[in-house]
Amino acid sequence: MSWLAEKNLVLGVTGGVAAYKAADLARQLVKAGARVSVVLSEAGARFVSAATFQALSGNPVWTDLWDDRMSNSMAHIDLSRGADAILIAPATADVMAKLAQGLAPDLLTTLCLARDCPLLVAPAMNRQMWEHPATLRNAAQLKADGVVILGPDHGEQACGEIGLGRMLEPEALLELLETYFAPKVLAGTRIVMTAGPTFEAIDPVRGITNSSSGKMGYALARACAQAGAQVNLVSGPVALASPLGVDRVSVQSALEMRAAVLERVAGADVFIGVAAVADYRPATQAEHKIKKSGEALALTLVPNPDILAEVAALPDGPFCVGFAAESQNLDEYAARKRAAKGLPMIVGNLVQDGLGGDENQVVIYDDLGRHPLPRGPKDRVASQIVSHLARLMNALTSPVTPCTTST
Q1: What is this structure's pTM?
Q2: Closest listed residue to residue 56, CA positions, set 78, 79, 38
Q3: Which fold does the domain 8-181 belong to in CATH?
Q4: Chain-centre distance of CA 293, in angstroms?
């Protein structure tokens, strides 16, 4: 599921070196299902041609205020009327100044002045240009006018300097747009969750772990953040970037994960235990690497704490959601786990259907029964889980209307 599917977006491209990133952004927007119309400024066309954007978007590119391809020759009016949003990326200091002052010397700025849809801008400029009082003043005015400013980012710039001013990468802009359009069904909710495997050290170089990639947990963290929640993610070792807007703390072992969760769970509305926490850990950890020998090696294992059960048992604790990954008898084992830990909701899946992969097939269990979800990419499955969670949360907080009788 992409919240950009079927959205009509106008992508404004102005004259900055980062215009090359706009070409990739246009491609990714189309891949996400959006319909993209590109408005290219005269300066922007000096960096990337209209032909490139037409090939990537599949639509005509607009450059001229006097373009008569619209039936009424009013592209500056008609382009925004069917648009869900206008995004200017890159947005130079020059175009931000014009927008802040209401100037409209070309098609893009005239279109923004005549719009009746949201406007988002992704600044891109030299660090000193961004830090100039005039630019900061213009940015503040745009925010006051309801314009959404995405970025800028910190890093190395085309001029060789380092600082704030880089345009956000296309992937980051895509995720921010997804977040912008996602229904905020969890607005005002604080969520603590776990994801990934744990690693239980045997010695400094060896340990016990599992094949969890963390992809389902990270997809769910992203979906919760997009739904408006404040998300604290306690993550085991994974090779994944933190979702935008998610506060992540990295841990290794189950004991570290437990400590991090208990430190953050007070006052949380929801706890979601997605992590594949190792059930056992070595009773002792060798200080130095255990040398190989021809003899059998015996390890004494002790149980790890059950983080989910401990949180679920807290007085006035959060609404708890568990995950059950099984290799067989999913309905029986998931239902048993939900009952044993007193969970209002558990998400179950067979390990052969999703562990470590990019897709998953899950079943949600709650007090109303069994709710299977169709197999799909983990991002889509995560959005469906969030929708179900929001409905359950809403049912808990909705006031009960007293019964009345008439005579």
Answers
A1: 0.85
A2: 38
A3: Rossmann fold (3.40.50)
A4: 48
Q: Half-sphere exposure of residue 379, counting CA atoms within 13 Å on the CB side?
A: 12
Confidence of residue 79 (pLDDT cuts 50, 70, 90): confident
What is the pLDDT at residue 402? Answer: 47
Model confidence at 351, pLDDT cuts 50, 70, 90, reads: confident
CATH number of 190-397: 3.40.50.10300
Which of residues 79 and 164 earns the better pLDDT score?
164
| Fold match, 8-181 / 190-397 | yes
Cα torsion 185, 187, 191, 193: sign? positive
Side chain identity at residue 66, one-letter code:
W
Q: How far from 15 is each of 86, 127, 205, 305, CA to CA, in Å? A: 17, 16, 51, 57
Domain regions of the chain by residue span: 8-181, 190-397
Output the furthest CA–CA distance in the chain (Å, rounded).
90
Report the distance separating Cα 309 and Cα 271, nearest Å.
Answer: 11
pLDDT band at 64 (very low <50, low <70, confident <90, very high): confident
Q: Is residue 8 a contact partner of residue 83, using CB atoms and an 8 Å limit?
A: yes
* Residue 206 pLDDT level (bands cut at 50, 70, 90): very high
> Half-sphere exposure of residue 161, counting CA atoms within 13 Å on the CB side?
11
Which one of 112, 117, 159, 320 is the catalytic residue? 159
Q: Residue 215 — very low, low, confident or very high, per pLDDT cuts 50/70/90? A: very high
Give catalytic status of residue 159 as yes or no.
Answer: yes
Output b/e per residue, 200-212; b: 16+ Cβ within 10 A.
bbbeeeebbbbeb
